[in-house]
C-alpha cells in the first residue's frame, strides 16, 4: 500500500521575556503577575490558542525541561499546493502569532487579553513532504520596540516534518456492507469489504468462517466487556460489522457489546449509561480485543455525540483512554486520535491526553519538543482520523491512518472497523422518538 504525502507543522517551545525596564503600571497588565497566551494562525486553517510561559529576564533557560507542542497543523498535498500558489496579493505563506498578556477568553464579545505584539514567520514548504525542515528555533523580537532592541522577546520553534498517511474511503454507508478503497491522488484501489449484520444477542461470540474454533476462555472475557441490560423496550443492540480483505478473510471487526438504551424517563442514551463497541482483531483462531468505544448523547446546547475510545493492551482490564470528545449531531465532524499536538487544525473532536508528552515551562534550544514515553502504548503523534456526517446525512467515512501505526493489513483494518463503529454510533445514539433506516432495524425485533 502506498501512502499519501502529508506534512505536520509544529509550533512549540514557547516562552516570553519582557525587558527589565517594563515595570507594571496601572494601565498595563504585566506578564509577571498575569498569564500570557497567543493566537496562532495559518491561512485556510483554524486558529489555535496556547499559553505562553513567562521567563523573568534574570533567569536562564532550563535546558533539561521539556514543553508540550503549542499548536499543530496537518497539511495534505492539496493544502501545500494551495498555500504555495502565488498571487498578486501574497507571496510565501506565513505563520502569524499574536501574543497577549492577561487571561484568554472574552467578555461580552470583547477579548480580555491585551495585545503585546505580533510575529509573522514565512514558511517555505517546498520539499517538506520528504524531509524535515526547521523554520525557526530561538528568540524573536515582538512589539512596537522591535527595531530598538528593547522589545519583548518570544522564544519558539517552528518545524515541518513528513507525516505520510494511508487514506481509506468507504464507498457506501457502513450499514450497507460497502467496499473500502485506498485513495492515493486520483487512484482508487479496493482493499477491504465490510459486512454489516445483527449478532445474536444471546451469543456474544461473533464468529466468521475462518474463526470457527473459539476457546471457552474467550467467551468469558468477551462477555465481561458487555452489559447484562438485555431487555425489551427502548434499545438498539446486536449490531456488528466485519472487515474482510480481498481474499475474503476477516481481518477486523466491531461488535456492539453493550446495547444503546434510553435512560429511564428519557428518549436518549445518557453519558452515565453509554452503549459500547468492542473493536476486535483475529489471533490464534479467535477474536481478540484491541479497543473499546463508548458513545452517548450529550445534553444541553451541544446536543452532540459524546464518545470515549480506550485501548485494551494485551487483553488487560486496565484500558487506556486515547480519545474523548463530542461531535455535532447535526453537522458531524471528525473523530481524531492525536497524541502529539495541542489543538486540531480545524477538525472537530480532537483531544490530546496530557500524558502523551512531557510538560514543562521553558524551551529547549535543541528544538526537540520532548515527546515523552507514553506508558503501555506505542502510539505517538497523529494516529488516525475519520469523518462522521451528521444525523440523516449520507455518510461514507474517509479514514486517515498514520503510516507509522500500520505494520500489516490487520492494523489498517482495525482503524477501518473503528471508523465504522463511530459512524454507526451516530445512529445508535439518535433520539428514540426518531426512526432508523431499515438497514439498522433487526427483523427479529418485530417477530412474535
UniProtKB/TrEMBL annotation:
Region spans: Disordered: 202-221
Recorded superkingdom: Eukaryota
Signal peptide limits: none
Biased composition (Low complexity): 208-221
Pfam families according to UniProt: DUF1005
Name the UniProt record assigns to this protein: Formin-like protein 18
Source species of the chain: Hibiscus sabdariffa
Amino acid at each position: 500500500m502506498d501512502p499519501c504525502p502529508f506534512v505536520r507543522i509544529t509550533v512549540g517551545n514557547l516562552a516570553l521575556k519582557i525587558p527589565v525596564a517594563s515595570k507594571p503600571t496601572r494601565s498595563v497588565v504585566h506578564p509577571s503577575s498575569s498569564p500570557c497566551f497567543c493566537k496562532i494562525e495559518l491561512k485556510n486553517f483554524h486558529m489555535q490558542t496556547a499559553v505562553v510561559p513567562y521567563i523573568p529576564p534574570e533567569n536562564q533557560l532550563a535546558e533539561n525541561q521539556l514543553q508540550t507542542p503549542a499548536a499543530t497543523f496537518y497539511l495534505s498535498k492539496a493544502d501545500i499546493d494551495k498555500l504555495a500558489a502565488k498571487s498578486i496579493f501574497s507571496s510565501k505563506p506565513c505563520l502569524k502569532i499574536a501574543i497577549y498578556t492577561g487571561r484568554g477568553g472574552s467578555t461580552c464579545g470583547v477579548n480580555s487579553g491585551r495585545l503585546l505584539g505580533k510575529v509573522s514567520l514565512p514558511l517555505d514548504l517546498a520539499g517538506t513532504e520528504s524531509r524535515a525542515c526547521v523554520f525557526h528555533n530561538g528568540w524573536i523580537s515582538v512589539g512596537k520596540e522591535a527595531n530598538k532592541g528593547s522589545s519583548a522577546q518570544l522564544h519558539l520553534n517552528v518545524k515541518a516534518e513528513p507525516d505520510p498517511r494511508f487514506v481509506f474511503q468507504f464507498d457506501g454507508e457502513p450499514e450497507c456492507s460497502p467496499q473500502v478503497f485506498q485513495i492515493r491522488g486520483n487512484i482508487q484501489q479496493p482493499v477491504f469489504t465490510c459486512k454489516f449484520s445483527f449478532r445474536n444477542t444471546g451469543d456474544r461470540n461473533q464468529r466468521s468462517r475462518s474463526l470457527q474454533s473459539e476457546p471457552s476462555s474467550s467467551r468469558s472475557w468477551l462477555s465481561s466487556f458487555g452489559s447484562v441490560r438485555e431487555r425489551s423496550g427502548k434499545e438498539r443492540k446486536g449490531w456488528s460489522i466485519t472487515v474482510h480483505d480481498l481474499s475474503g478473510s476477516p481481518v477486523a471487526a466491531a461488535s456492539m457489546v453493550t446495547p444503546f438504551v434510553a435512560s429511564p424517563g428519557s428518549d436518549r442514551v445518557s453519558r452515565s449509561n453509554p452503549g459500547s463497541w468492542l473493536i476486535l482483531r483475529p489471533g490464534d483462531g479467535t477474536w481478540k480485543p484491541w479497543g473499546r468505544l463508548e458513545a452517548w448523547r450529550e445534553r444541553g446546547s451541544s446536543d452532540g455525540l459524546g464518545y470515549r475510545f480506550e485501548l485494551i493492551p494485551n487483553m488487560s482490564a486496565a484500558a487506556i483512554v486515547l480519545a474523548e470528545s463530542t461531535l455535532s449531531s447535526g453537522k458531524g465532524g471528525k473523530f481524531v486520535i492525536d497524541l502529539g499536538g495541542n489543538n486540531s487544525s480545524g477538525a472537530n473532536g480532537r483531544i490530546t491526553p496530557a500524558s502523551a508528552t512531557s510538560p514543562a515551562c521553558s524551551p529547549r534550544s535543541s528544538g526537540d519538543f520532548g515527546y515523552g514515553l507514553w506508558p503501555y502504548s506505542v502510539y505517538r503523534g497523529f494516529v488516525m482520523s475519520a469523518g462522521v456526517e451528521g444525523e440523516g446525512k449520507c455518510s461514507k467515512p474517509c479514514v486517515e491512518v498514520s503510516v507509522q501505526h500500520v505494520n500489516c493489513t490487520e492494523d489498517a483494518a482495525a482503524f477501518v472497523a473503528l471508523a465504522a463503529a463511530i459512524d454507526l454510533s451516530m445512529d445508535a445514539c439518535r433520539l428514540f422518538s426518531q426512526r432508523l433506516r431499515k438497514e439498522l432495524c433487526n427483523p427479529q425485533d418485530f417477530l412474535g
